Amino acid sequence: MMLRRAFRKLSFNTLAAALLLLTLGGAFLFSAWSKFQDIDPFAWTLLDAGIPGDKTAAVSARLLVGLEAAIGLLLLVRVAVRKIALPLATVLLLGFSGYLAYLLAQQGNTGDCGCFGSLLPMKPLPALVKNAFLLLGIGVLARMHGWREWTPRMLPGAVLLLAFTALPLLLLPVSNKKETLELALLQDRRTDLSKGKQVVAFLSLGCPHCRHAARDFREFFKADATLPLTMILNGTPEEAEDFFRETGARNVPTRYETNPDVFLRLAGRYVPSIYYVRNGIIERRVSYNTLTPQAIRRWADSQP
User: What is the arithmetic mean of pLDDT over 157-179?
Assistant: First the structure.
């Protein structure tokens, strides 16, 4: 009986606000958590967006992930929602949406926006739609009456905001250490891949995902035959005939590595393995389903 009376006292606005706060807060926390699992791709996205310098992009990525987490937390615990969380969420979503609109204009609905890190690849158009729904939810919540915050005060909200924004910098300190890709181990040395900028893709002949990647590369080279991208296959040219018949990727520069130990050492356990390499140093790792020819060209043409 008491529960029934309590439920009757709950207004539609109270229930709707609770659902919106849960949805919005969960979305921001999930976005932060998914990027935190592997933060480097998000930093590379910021580099592609124009953030100058690897270290600046790495720090910015961590601060943005912390800011997303802080906004999500403020929404869920109902602290300074109207004064801090909703305005910041609006600014952040509008900023991300502007970048997504730029991506759509430059390269169409291809590649990965980086909204949910490597955990959940998403193309720019669906990401824009997602942001539009989140902004709509924020607008409705801001104008809705009849729901209460735990505290609307700025001070506790500011403390939580600063603490969670800085937390990823403490948990994931920015390192200047660079990993070398030992391309000199390759038996096929027709060209020196360790000089200059090169995207190196290690593909296994029997891997379905590698064949999918090779088909994508074929299309890349149809659009831009000068891309600095090379496939390295784990076999001989004769063993690769079926691979090329299926993928049609004969227009992609290819090298062969017949030593399985060398291939495993360079590619790692999982293929396709794709590296952006500058003078033998790995600058980033990417997934084949997020790689675009426009991103490769921007990186290749950027200043050393």
Answer: 88
CATH 3.40.30.10 fits 179-301, yes or no: yes
Mind listing the pLDDT tens digit for each residue in 40-59?
878 877 877 777 777 888 89
Taking a C-beta distance cutoff of 8 angstroms, is the pair 290, 190 a contact? no
Q: How many CB atoms lie within 10 A of CB 136?
A: 11
**In the predicted model, is pLDDT for residue 286 greater than 60?**
yes
Q: Quote the CA–CA distance of 54 and 44 in Å, as a whole number.
A: 8
More confident residue, 3 or 23: 23
Residue 151 is classified by DSSP as: B
DSSP letter for 238, please.
T
Cβ atoms of 29 and 69 within 8 Å: the answer is yes
Would the pLDDT of 60 be above 80? yes
Q: Could you give the strand order of the β-sheet that contains 179-180, starting from the edge strand earlier in sequence?
A: 179-180, 281-286, 273-278, 197-203, 229-233, 254-256
d(CA 30, CA 36) in angstroms, rounded, equals 10
Residue 91 CB neighbour total at 10 angstroms? 11
The domain limits of the chain are: 2-171, 179-301
